[in-house]
Specification:
By secondary structure, the chain is mainly α. It is built from 5 helices and 2 strands, in the order αααβααβ. Strands 1-2 form a two-stranded antiparallel ribbon.
């Protein structure tokens, strides 16, 4: 069960990031791994990340259908290790459409 004060503090730290792309990816990964909701954490985190990007006119994150298996593999590795580097790189290189 997430602890509200810790969640608020971490989200505050993420939202203070200056790089909008890193902010969006960090938000997506935090909400997904944090399991803040009973169901729909991946969907909710994608909506949250895209809100951050769209509000800044910066683009969208969408997992291409051909890359879903790789995304899931990287996500599992992130869940197990808390090392965000590989999945962050994947999201920024393969899933981000800048506008």
């Amino acid at each position: 069960m997430p602890i509200e004060s810790i969640v608020k503090e971490r989200l505050s730290d993420i939202l203070e990031m200056t790089d909008v792309y890193q902010k969006a990816v960090s938000a997506l990964l935090f909400v997904t791994r944090g399991q803040l909701f009973i169901d729909g954490n991946k969907r909710t985190s994608a909506i949250f990340a895209n809100h951050i990007l769209i509000s800044q006119g910066a683009g969208l994150i969408a997992i291409p259908e051909d890359d879903v298996l790789e995304y899931k593999k990287l996500l599992i590795a992130y869940y197990e290790t808390n090392d965000a580097s590989p999945i962050s790189k994947f999201l920024l290189e393969k899933c981000l459409t800048k506008i």
